[in-house]
Structure formats: C-alpha cells, structure tokens
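Illustration 12: Late embryogenesis abundant protein LEA-2 subgroup domain-containing protein.
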Amino acid sequence: MAEKDQQVYPMPQAKHDEEAAVEQSKELRRKKRMKCLAYVVAFAVFQTGIILLFALTVMKIRTPKFRVRSATFETFDVVTTPTSFNIKMNAELGVKNTNFGHYKFDNSTITFFYKGTPVGSTVVSKARARARSTKKFNIVVDLISTNLPNTSDLENDINSGFLPLTSESTLQGKVELFKVYPMPQANGPAKHDEEAATMQSEELRRKKRMKYLAYGVAFAVFQTGIILIFALTVMKIKTPKFRVRSATLETFDIVTATPSFNIRMNAEVGVKNTNFGHYKFNNSTITFFYKGTPIGSAIVPKARARAQSTKKLNIVVDLISTSLPSTSELGNDISSGLLLLSSQSTLQGKVELFKVMKKKKSTQMDCTMTINLGDRTIQNLKCK
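Figure caption equivalent — predicted structure in token form:
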C-alpha cells in the first residue's frame, strides 16, 4: 500500500509580519496624535499667557500724573512793612502719561495757596499727552498776598526768607486706546426730536461696533507679532557649539635626540546650547592631530546641555608621537619650543523643546592650540 500523505502543520507564531506592521503603524499614528495634542495644548497655554500679558500691560489704564516740574520768577516784590508780596511766577507743568494710548484732557485751573489761603490761580489749557510720554507746557501766575488774613505768620516767613506754597488742581480727561475715527454724520436737520434721538442712538452703536472692531484688529496684529517673535526666537533651533575651553599638561616627556614626545593633557570641553530646550548628545570621540596625523584621542560621554547654558566636561588624553612619520619637522618644532596641535570631533544629538518637539542637530569641533615646551602651557587656543 502506498503510504498515506502526511499533513504538515505550520508552527504557531505569536505574530506574523503583517500583524506586526499593522501594530507598528497604529503605534506611530497614536504617537503622532499625542504629539499634535501636545502642540495644541502648548499653543493654548502660550496664547493664554499672551492674552493675560496684553490685558495687564497694554489694556491696563493707569492714572496720568500731573506735576509742577519747575518754576522761575519774572517779577518779585516783597515788602516787610507792611508784610506783603506780589510775585509773577513762570512755571512748567507736566502731564506724564504712561498708558499705551493718548490722554486728552480739558481746560482746568491750578490754584496756589499760602498756608491754605489762595494767593493766585491760572488756567491750564486743554491738550493731549501722547502715549508713553510727558506733555510739557508753561503757565504764568500772579501770586498776591492781598487775600491773606492779618497774622504774624507771613511776617515771620518773610523775615526767615522762605515762603511755603502749595498748588492744587484736578485734570479731567480720557485715555484713548486704539483710536477709532468717528464716522461722518449725515447732513441736514432732523425732522423732530424722536428721529434725532434714534439717529444719535444708531450713531453711538455704530461707533461702539467700530471700537470693538478696532480692538479686535489691534489684538490680532499684536498676536501676530508675538507669534512671529516666538517663532523666530524660542522655536528657532540653533546648532550648539562644541569647543575646547582650556587645557593643562599633567605629564610631560620630550626627547630631542629621537625626536619624540609623550604628553598627558587634561582638557575641559564645553557644549554651548543657546536654544530654549535641552540638547541631548551621544558618545563621541575627540581626536588630536599634529600636522594632520592623529596623535591621541579621548571619549566624550553622552550627556545633556540644559537650555541657554553650557555643559562642561573634562577629558584626559595621551598625546604620543609614535605614529608620526620620520621627518625633520618634529625636531625643528621641538627645537623651537612650540608644538602646533589641532582637535576635531563631531557631536550627534537632539534639541528637545517643551518635552515634545525634537530635532536632530550635529555640531563640529575644529580647534587649534600651541604647546609651549618651555613653560609647559597651552597657548593660542582658538576654535572656529
């Protein structure tokens, strides 16, 4: 009899390649959604902060300051017997407006007092103090003692050479943010009072709508400017700088007859990160050269440079001349007392913003230095 065909059963597998690809695709989509959500949340928080900043700075109305800045005397007539005075004073006044909009004020009166009794006053004309500036203007006032009661205080003050005066005034006005120009009014008289009141009400509502529209446009422009500044500063990823900061020599063995050298150098390297996010970099190797030939190398361990800071690391490297070709240049340099070295390295890493956005960035080291064999120091350390 022919042998019965034997059925071959495939070995069970936990996941085949197609299922693994589907799962990997789902995981990638989930991570992408989480990243987009994080961007939206970060932008919402940023927008909220900008709105609060806008409300607490630009939109906050502060009371202007009204002050006498300085004063001089044009005429000066003081009589001791009987005690009296008649003085013409030129004063400079100032209205300091710290708001982000103009301050328009009406006519006002400033009054000067001697111990509570008015001795002179003058008119302050209406004007406008521009945003974030001080409006200066001059006044002239006659100070006369005819209204003072008969007391010995004035005589004593005149004899002492000092007259204490005070000034008081109230300035009424309005601070105008994001000026809205009024719409032109219709020509011709109204038919009766009811129609006039209706037109006035419509005009007021139109002005109010225009004012809200101006606020919206101004805020949109402000937001656009802030977003541009944010994009060009905080969100701009810059390449970190990788440099040799300083170096000292631990052991120093120079042979002039051979010629050769064996030097152990302690170097401090720095990774300067000017970004607003951390820079995480991997292990790297720094190689030191003498006229293009490697003479030593050292490992730079992986680490993290914080935002807007410099990560400093110390390395130890043995500089040995055994791999150099037999030429007379090394002997000449040793005789001159100066060894010109260079160092090169590439650092690979990622800049991480807000724990969400990551961008790969690599930075190059290209430094030169001179070893002074006489005083055993590093000189002319320069990095590109």
